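Running low. Got one?
___
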Amino acid sequence: MSRLKIVAVSGSPTAPSRTTALVDDVARSLAEQVDGEAQLIELAPLLGQLAQGVWRTELGAAAQAALDEVEQADVLVVGSPAYRASYTGLFKLFFDHIGQYALVDKPILLTATGGSDRHALLVEHQMRPLFGFFQSHTLPLGIFASEGDFENYRVTSDDLRARIDLSIRRALPFIRASAADRDALAVGARPDAF
């Protein structure tokens, strides 16, 4: 099996960011479990390029490259801070430019951050439906983290670390099955032959 490409996307409009710290930590932890490669995409520096036009071809080169990386990933780890009880407009703007069928069956681990646990349902009520539109395979346990789970923009909470580990453990069977299907298709075998 070839190495999995795990792409983390932080929808935070600020830097440094707890959301960025979370998605990067989760992607790296997942990459260690599957001998994959983790890559981080921060959307904050791409805001100007994402707003250059309505169509993807009108966007800046770095924004287009980030969109390509997401579409070519084997697994996505996505995250946004809670803004007005939802993901950020920047997060939505980025995914508005993703091809409608580019994420079909792609495993996606959902994460979010917020000032308090009152925002924890952002993952289930806002993010999961967005990726349902793309027909993605959202993984079973999303991860929500609040301000108290971080120090100096690093994951420091034992409770959050345990939630990350559990989410990854529950995701591994789905990710491995998806990777087996991908590898089977690459050599011309039917994925349902397994």
Summary: The beta strands are 5-10, 37-42, 75-81, 107-114, 137-138, 143-146, 150-151, 154-155. The helical segments are 18-34, 47-50, 61-72, 89-96, 122-133, 158-186. The radius of gyration is 16 Å.
